[in-house]
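Appendix C reproduces, verbatim, an entry submitted by the partner laboratory led by Prof. M.T., so that reviewers can inspect both the input and the predicted structure.
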Amino acid sequence: MSSKENQDNLRNAPSSSSSSSSSGAAGRSASSSSAKHRAMAAQKINEAHEHIAKAEKCLKTSMTKWKPDYDEAASEMAKAAVAFKNAKQFEQAKDAYLKEAEYHTENKALFHAAKAYEQAGMMLKDMKKMPEAVQLIEKASIMYVENGTSGTAGIALDRAGKLIEPLDLEKAVDLYQKAASVFENEDRLRQAAELLGKSSRLLVRLRRLDEAAVSLQKEKNMYKEIENYPTCFKKTIAQVLVHLHRADFVAADKCVRESYSLPGFSGSEDCMSMETLLAAYDEQDEDEVSRVCHSPLLKYMDNDYAKLAISLKVPGGVSGKKKKAAAPQGGSAGPPPAEENDDYEGGLC
């Protein structure tokens, strides 16, 4: 390599001092950013304590002020909670929201008290304390109902169900059922049916099939009432699968027969598939049952029902291979087996 090329390479190569200075600058920038965040958090915490002091002042009485000002105290405590939340101090934010709820309750402002309890629950969620979070959200839902805002209660219970579902399926079922009941009482059947659908799927997952069958029937009735017939067809399929897993062929057959009254069900793909499935199950034809259960119609249902389909077994069922292997009977039989020689044929003499 020529000396000129060497000089060019040296000029183009980054110097060690410049690379080290750039990494140092990056480190200083990160440190500066971290210090800035800490300063902002400290400022928010100070603001929160100022609002708490104002709230406490609102509660004091004197010769000229006979009653505590719960409304203003609640407002100040709400501001304190937001400041704590912005500073990522979730425990203190939760406590501030609980105080806010207490003051709103004293002031007979149930809706605002419920909102504060719900916010306290969300702080617990951020702290990964899901059971405690759900407990506060349930408390909020009761207050919503007492206040006459049942729709908000249903939404809160649905939210609580989603929070606890990954940890406790039993509790999630209970919350979804309560939410469905709230919406049903409000004649909001679509929302009620959707929440019952969540409950039904979890009951299947828990193998509480008797309860799942009852839940599915109620769900189907609601969809029928709001004239959502295609969804009714899907619920009929789910019912058949649940009943067959319960080994109750009669109940499964009854569900299909009752669905004939639904407009569009008779002759539909859902109807023909269930008729084929029930006939094959009744005839103990494992191959045909497996074919129907692995068809796209059943395979791509909600996951919990799809699992029921592909795991369905026929009690005492016989596959086509077994039938072929069985000994032929009647006129199609082959030559009769040769008779064994009998040493005593024709008698003893």
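Residues 16-59 form the longest helix (44 residues). Additional entries are available on request from the coordinating office.
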